[in-house]
Structures are given as C-alpha cells and as structure tokens.
Amino acid sequence: MVPPILYIGIDSRNKIIPKDTLFAVEKSEMKGASYTRISVSTSGGFVPTWEKPVLTEKEIKEGKQPDPVFVLNSTATFIAKGEDMGQVKNYFLTTAAAGTSGLLLVSSSLRKPFDLDKGYKLTVGMSVSLREAKLED
Description:
A 4-stranded antiparallel beta sheet has the order 2-1-5-6, with helices on one face. By secondary structure, it is mainly β. The chain has 2 helices and 7 strands; from the N terminus they run βαββαββββ. It has helices at about 20-30, 55-60; strands spanning about 5-10, 40, 45-50, 70-80, 85-95, 105-115, 120-130.
C-alpha cells in the first residue's frame, strides 16, 4: 500500500550507497531552523504528463522510436530563510516526516553540489513512471 504522504529531503552524503537507510541520511541531512522535509501527497501532489523515455546508446543507433510513457512529476523547493543550510549533494524520498522511523525509498545525487546559503532556493524534482522490463521467451 502506498502511504498517503511521502517526504522529500536533502543531505550532504559524500556517496550514496544502495544499502543506505534513514540512519545514514540523518547524519548528513541539512540542519537549521528553516529546514524540514517537504511533504508530497500521493493522491494529489503529482502532475501527470506524457514523456518520451530515455534511450540507450544502442537503441538510438538502432533507430528505436519509443512510445511516450505516462509519468507523475512533483517538485519541492527548499529555502534557506534565516541561515545557511550548508552544501547539498543529494536529495531523497522517504516515508518519514522527520527522524529515522520510516523507509528511505530512493536517493539521487545533484549534478553538482549546491551551497544553500541564506536566501537561496533549491528545487528538486521526482518522477514516478512504469516501464517495460526485459521480456524473454
């Protein structure tokens, strides 16, 4: 069952490890009075769109023309209001509003670290989509 609310957070882990849990994230999660994980409603917090899937180099060479896929997109904006938050390297999706009691669902690294200084904003996005897995006879 999908929880009614998910949460997006940001952190400064040097490396994302597939076995990371919220315990690992919490050690490097942003701190400060203006930081909080941002909630996203699973029933209304996503915008549905049709997008073309990303092709592999091989698929491009083969001239594959993919059908668009249905994608649910959402964004979250973090604002350093009263103080610097520090350098952000990653963002993550969890079932917990705070602390380590929930599940760390997925993490992703920013293209490059971002200093979230007082007055700065950082917007991160997430997408949920389905794709066809490899079919075998």
